[in-house]
Amino acid sequence: MAKRIDVKDLNLFYGKFHAVDGVSLAVPPRNVTAFIGPSGCGKSTVLRSLNRMHEVIPGARAEGKVLLDGEDIYASTVDPVSVRRTIGMVFQRPNPFPTMSIKDNVVAGLRLAGERDKKKLEEVAERALRGANLWAEVKDRLNRPGGGLSGGQQQRLCIARAIAVRPDVLLMDEPCSALDPISTLAIEDLIQELKKDFTIVIVTHNMQQAARVSDQTAFFNLAGVGQPGRLVELDDTEKIFSNPTQKATEDYISGRFG
Ligand SMILES: Nc1ncnc2c1ncn2[C@@H]1O[C@H](COP(=O)(O)OP(=O)(O)OP(=O)(O)O)[C@@H](O)[C@H]1O
Ligand SMILES: [Mg+2]
Question: How many domains are there within the chain?
Answer without folding.
Answer: 1
